[in-house]
């Protein structure tokens, strides 16, 4: 049996001109995870989505881990959905995500205001009633994420077959996003779309979800572990 660790990226730069990069806290969260991992199973293969925040989280992890650097592969199948397109199709004012985020961030309850807007936009996308409006529909996004997971698993199983590898099992880390992780959890557990959105809302930055797989099955060992953050203090626990 082999393990896949789905790792959500560190805190990104919400309200900045470029959301797709880690904040200073996000970089430190990634290093905290790497330090924490020194006591866990040694990763011997790594994948990362193609977004900058994925790659920066991987870099921060390795900086904190300070162990042997395993091979890493960029895999765009693990990219997050296009949140700017999703928000813009819901309300054209979101065409400038940075401007709208900056305006909302100045309001007294900025997080609640943004979360309400984001949830409405997300439900519109997930409903399936407006699929033609989007660059990538909800169903297309789910298929992409699931295909990426099975691609990684198939690569590992085929490698074992080709090189007659019986043991040891691989420990594979995948640096990705909350939407991708929640969809893969849905795929494994057979959740409804609404339950999947609820899972997504609870995923913390640099939280870890562990999957176990064989040639015949995939299961979840644990979900959204962020013990490395709570050890450092509750101020380190963030959602986006």
Protein architecture, described:
The protein is of the alpha/beta class. It folds into two domains: 2-80 and 140-236, Phosphoglycerate mutase-like (Rossmann fold), CATH 3.40.50; 82-135, no CATH class. The chain is 48% helix and 14% strand. The chain has helices at residues 24-37, 52-65, 83-90, 97-105, 110-126, 138-162, 178-189, 193-202, 227-232, and strands spanning 2-8, 45-48, 72-74, 171-176, 208-213, 218-225. The protein has a six-stranded mixed β-sheet. Strand 2 (45-48), helix 2 and strand 3 (72-74) form a beta-alpha-beta unit. The longest helix has 25 residues, at 138-162. It is globular and about 50 Å long. The model has no long low-confidence stretch (mean pLDDT 91).
Please tell me the CATH architecture of the largest domain by its name: 3-Layer(aba) Sandwich
Q: What is the distance, rounded to the nearest whole angstrom, between the alpha carbons of the first and last residues?
A: 32 Å
CATH secondary-structure class of the largest domain: Alpha Beta
Tell how many strands the DSSP assignment holds. Answer: 6
- Briefly note the structural class of the backbone: alpha/beta
| CATH level-four homologous superfamily name of the largest domain | Phosphoglycerate mutase-like
Shape label: globular
How many individual domains?
2
Residue-averaged pLDDT: 91
Number of helices: 9
- Computed CA radius of gyration, to the nearest angstrom: 18 Å
Fraction of residues in β-strands: 5-15%
List low-pLDDT spans: none
Biggest sheet statistics:
6 strands, mixed
Fill in the CATH topology of the largest domain.
Rossmann fold
In helices, the fraction of residues equals 40-55%
**Largest sheet, spatial ordering of strands:** 3-2-4-1-5-6
**N-to-C SSE series?**
EHEHEHHHHEHHEEH
């Amino acid at each position: 049996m082999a393990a896949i660790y789905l790792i959500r990226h560190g805190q990104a730069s919400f309200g900045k001109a470029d959301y797709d990069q880690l904040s200073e806290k996000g970089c430190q969260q990634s290093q905290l995870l790497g330090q924490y991992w020194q006591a866990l199973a040694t990763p011997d293969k790594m994948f990362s989505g193609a977004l900058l925040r994925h790659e920066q989280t991987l870099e921060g992890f390795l900086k904190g881990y300070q162990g042997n650097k395993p091979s890493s592969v960029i895999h765009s199948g693990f990219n997050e959905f296009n949140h700017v397109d999703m928000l813009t199709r819901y309300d054209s004012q979101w065409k400038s995500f940075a401007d709208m985020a900056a305006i909302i961030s100045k309001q007294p309850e900025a997080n609640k205001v943004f979360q309400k807007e984001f949830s409405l936009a997300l439900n519109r996308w997930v409903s399936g009633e407006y699929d033609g409006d989007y660059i990538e529909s909800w169903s297309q996004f789910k298929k992409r994420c699931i295909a990426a997971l099975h691609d990684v698993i198939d690569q590992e199983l085929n490698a074992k077959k080709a090189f007659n590898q019986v043991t040891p099992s691989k420990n594979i880390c995948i640096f990705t996003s909350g939407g991708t992780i929640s969809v893969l959890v849905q795929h494994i557990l057979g959740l409804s779309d609404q339950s999947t959105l609820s899972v997504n809302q609870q995923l913390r930055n640099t939280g870890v979800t562990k999957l176990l797989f064989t040639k015949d099955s995939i299961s979840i060992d644990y979900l959204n572990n962020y013990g490395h953050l709570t050890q450092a203090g509750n101020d380190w626990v963030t959602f986006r």
